[in-house]
Structures are given as C-alpha cells and as structure tokens.
Specification:
Blueprint: H1 9-23, H2 30-42, E1 48-49, H3 53-60, H4 64-76, E2 80-83, E3 86-87, E4 92-93, E5 97-100, E6 125-127, E7 133-135, H5 162-177, H6 190-202, H7 209-226, H8 230-240, H9 247-276, H10 283-298, H11 312-317
Antiparallel strand pairs: 1-5, 2-5, 3-4, 6-7
C-alpha cells in the first residue's frame, strides 16, 4: 500500500498493524471505514498522519464533503483526534494532523432483541458499548426486576405488548418527519454561512439537507473548473441573491465580470492614449510664440498684431 508520508520500515510495519486493527472495527458505514483505513495506512510509528482532504477523497473515490463528514464522526467517537494547523502570518490553513486512538474508540453497535438465558419469559436485552449483554432493567434483571415475570403476580398471564409496539412505531414515524439540520462546512466562515441562511429565509425557502446537497454538488463542480474556494462561491451566491447556486450561473457571472473589466480597461487606455497623442510644438513654433510675446510687451502699440500673425517662416527670416 502506498504511503504519502514515506515512513521508515518500522512505520510500514506499524501501518500494517493499524490497518489490520481497523478491519476488525465497526464504524457503521463502509465509506467511513475506507476513510479510516486510508488514515491508518498513512500513519507513522506514532499513529500520526496528515493527508489532505483531496488525497483521501481521491483514494476512497468519494467527495471531499463526505471525507469531512466521516472524519468528524471518527473524532466524535474516539477513533482519532485532529490537530488543526493554521499559519497566522500567511493566513493559510495547512493539512490537519490526525492522531489515531483506536484503543479508545467507541465502536458502532446495533441494538438487538433476543431471549435471556434461564428465563421462561423473553427479556429485552441490548449490547452495550463494551460488548456485554445487559437487560434493560439491570445486569441480570428482566423488565420487572430479578427473577420477576412481566406480570405482577406469579402464574398470571403476560400482559399484551401491543401498546408499547404501537407507541414505538408512532415515535419512529414522528422521528422521520423531523427536519435534518444542515451543518456548516468547515471551510466556510460563520458570517458567510449566516448570510446564506438569511438569504434562504428571505426567499421563504429554508435551507434543507436536500437543497444543500444539490448546491454542494454544484460547488464542487465550480471549484474543479475555477479553483475558487467555497467562501468565494458562497459570497457570490449571496451577493447575486440566487435562491441556489448552479455551475452555469456562476460561470456566466465570471464571464460577465471579466467582460466589464475589459471594457473598463479599454476606456481608460483610450483616454490615456488621446491625452498622449496631442501634437507637439516644434522648436520654431515655440520660438515664434516667445518672440510675439516679447515684441508685444516691448512695443504694445506698434506690434499689437493679432494672434498667429508671426508665422514660423517670418521668425526664421528675421
């Protein structure tokens, strides 16, 4: 496996161990696991690596936005911690350093329903993060307590469980109707994000997860063709008052802006050129004008000649 960090032989051995450990872990998503494998593959002896978002996205064949989301989940669940690096002098972000902490990770676990051993009645149990099975009422208790059946009296028939099942279904339906909050992209400033949300609010179209996904795909296409940052793209989006951003709209905006700048520069060049192209006076013309002024001053009555009376040829004959 390729390693951009080019570790020593010991680092290669360590990366193999980390990758092997990651294969046995549960993260709840196959693409998320690919991201974690990529990080483990590039880690050095200390379990540290610093690949860019673009490098991870290319290796895992997913979008840059997906990489950011999956890494955030891995950090929140203890698989790693992020050392964010920023050069204040150049006002520039460097690639993050990722410190793998697989031993402290809280692995993804699915809830299960199964029968508890040694009991005639089924008790609802779930797997805890450390893998131990515990009944909902305690480590060895069923729903009503240690050794207790679901009913209040010994030998009584168990109560119907239709009610809690219906309640669970209704709760599930209610949860599905809730709107999913859209998280601010890490590379976008809070001010630009607030301006975008306010614009959508004025358009009476709050930013939904689906709307942002479509806009995010357009932003990635624009970034690929123009190299502009998400901050620049969202700023233009808000300034133009678009309800969303599309690749065609943004590229047309750039063309129009460039055309206006070209016309402005052309007008300035024409003005400067006309000013520079004024005809220059010859030395003879300058001398004639000076002689006219001198004679008019010395002999105002005799030489009160009209303007242009003394021509260049006259001056030369004198």
């Amino acid at each position: 496996m390729a390693n951009d960090n080019a570790p020593s032989d010991g680092g290669v051995e360590m990366s193999f161990k980390l990758v092997a450990a990651v294969f046995d872990m549960k993260v709840g998503n196959p693409l998320r696991k690919m991201v974690l494998i990529k990080l483990a593959d590039q880690a050095n002896d200390d379990g540290v690596c610093w690949p860019s978002y673009e490098s991870i996205a290319n290796s895992c064949e997913i979008s840059r936005r997906s990489v950011v989301t999956h890494i955030q989940w891995l950090e929140d669940n203890g698989f790693l911690w992020i050392e964010r690096r920023y050069n204040a002098e150049e006002s520039k972000n460097f690639s993050n350093r990722y410190h793998l902490t697989l031993g402290k990770a809280q692995q993804f676990k699915k809830s299960k329903v199964k029968k508890s051993k040694g009991s005639a009645n089924a008790a609802l149990v779930q797997e805890t993060p450390n893998g131990a099975n515990a009944a909902l009422g305690g480590e060895t208790d069923a729903l009503g307590g240690a050794g207790a059946a679901l009913s209040n009296g010994a030998g009584a028939a168990p109560e119907s469980i239709n009610k809690p099942i219906n309640e669970s279904i209704n709760e599930s339906r209610t949860t599905k109707k809730k709107k999913v909050a859209v998280e601010k992209p890490e590379e976008l400033s809070q001010q630009a994000w607030d301006d975008l949300l306010e614009l959508r609010k004025l358009k009476k179209a709050p930013l939904s997860a689906t709307a942002w996904k479509l806009a995010d795909n357009a932003i990635e296409a624009i970034q690929y063709k123009t190299g502009h940052s998400i901050e620049q793209i969202v700023t233009v989006w808000v300034a133009r008052g678009w309800i969303t951003v599309k690749e065609e709209w943004y590229l047309n905006h750039i063309k129009n802006d460039q055309a206006q700048q070209t016309n402005y520069q052309g007008n300035n060049n024409a003005i400067n050129q006309s000013a520079n192209n004024q005809p220059k006076q010859s030395q003879a013309d300058i001398y004639a004008a000076k002689l006219n002024a001198d004679l008019a001053e010395r002999f105002p009555d005799e030489f009160a000649a009209p303007d242009g009376y003394y021509e260049t040829s006259d001056c030369q004959s004198i």
